[in-house]
């Protein structure tokens, strides 16, 4: 492999450097779900040129996500290894939503034993990361969660055991057919 380009101090990186950084960042996985990349999860939002290098923009899946420190360290290590000056920017608005997860991420969750979120939270595919997305909250039966299929056997004969699973963004479910417990990534 050729040596990574090094941007001159104070110079904005060129398109080739941006592409190289995107490619390297694409290999970073979520520390809590190692089968999914940060980009597939929608956590890795942007890589953009700044006056003094690059800004890599990330958004946490929820406030207080314990993986964010590791994610920032992993991104900084990619920049250091490529010898590209830059920094990590945490962007909180718009807030992350499970709508930003790719279909590949949902398939990988299922294969890993975690039920992916059911349905969409807001907007359509074209506006997934648009700041104008608005989450709509509804009351009563309209807000009921559809049956969550078991990622192990596919049965929809499942029940929620606990609204909080291994992390705050997941609920704990149990399949009444195969009797296996599993996490369900809550849509929000």
Fraction of residues in β-strands: 15-25%
Shape: elongated
Tell me the CATH topology of the domain at 15-90. Answer: GMP Synthetase, Chain A, domain 3
Largest sheet: 4 strands, mixed
DSSP summary: helix tally: 4
Q: How much helical structure, as a percent, in the residues?
A: 10-25%
Query: Could you tell me how far the N terminus lies from the C terminus, measured between alpha carbons in angstroms?
Result: 41 Å
In what order do the strands lie side by side in the largest sheet?
Answer: 4-7-6-5
Average pLDDT rating: 84
Low-pLDDT sequence parts: 124-132
List keywords for this structure.
single chain; about 190 residues; alpha/beta; GMP Synthetase, Chain A, domain 3; four-stranded mixed beta sheet; 4 helices; about 20% helix; elongated
Task: Tell me what the structure shows.
The chain contains four helices and seven strands, in the order ααββαβαββββ. The chain is of the alpha/beta class and 188 residues long. It has a domain at 15-90: Fe-S cluster assembly (FSCA) (GMP Synthetase, Chain A, domain 3, 2-Layer Sandwich), CATH 3.30.300.130. The protein has a four-stranded mixed sheet with strand order 4-7-6-5. A three-stranded mixed sheet has the order 1-2-3. β6 (170-175) and β7 (181-185) form a beta hairpin. The longest helix has 15 residues, at 68-82. The chain is elongated.
Question: Topology of this protein?
Answer:
Elements: H1 15-25, H2 38-41, E1 44-50, E2 53-58, H3 68-82, E3 86-90, H4 103-112, E4 114-115, E5 158-162, E6 170-175, E7 181-185
Parallel strand pairs: 2-3, 4-7
Antiparallel strand pairs: 1-2, 5-6, 6-7
């Amino acid at each position: 492999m050729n040596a990574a380009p090094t941007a001159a101090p104070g110079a904005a990186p060129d398109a080739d450097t941006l592409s190289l950084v995107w490619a390297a960042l694409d290999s970073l996985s979520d520390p809590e779900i190692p089968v999914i990349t940060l980009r597939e999860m929608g956590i890795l939002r942007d890589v953009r040129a700044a006056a003094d290098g690059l800004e890599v923009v990330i958004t946490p899946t929820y406030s207080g996500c314990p993986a964010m420190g590791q994610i920032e360290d992993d991104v900084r290590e990619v920049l250091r290894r490529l010898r590209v000056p830059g920094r990590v920017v945490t962007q909180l608005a718009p807030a992350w939503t499970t709508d930003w997860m790719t279909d590949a991420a949902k398939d990988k969750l299922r294969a890993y034993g975690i039920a992916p979120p059911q349905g969409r939270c807001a907007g359509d595919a074209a506006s997934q990361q648009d700041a104008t997305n608005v989450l709509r909250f509804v009351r009563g039966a309209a807000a009921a969660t559809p049956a969550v299929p078991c990622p192990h056997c596919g049965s929809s004969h499942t029940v929620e055991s606990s609204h909080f699973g291994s992390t705050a963004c997941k609920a704990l479910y149990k399949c009444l057919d195969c009797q296996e417990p599993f996490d369900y990534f809550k849509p929000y």
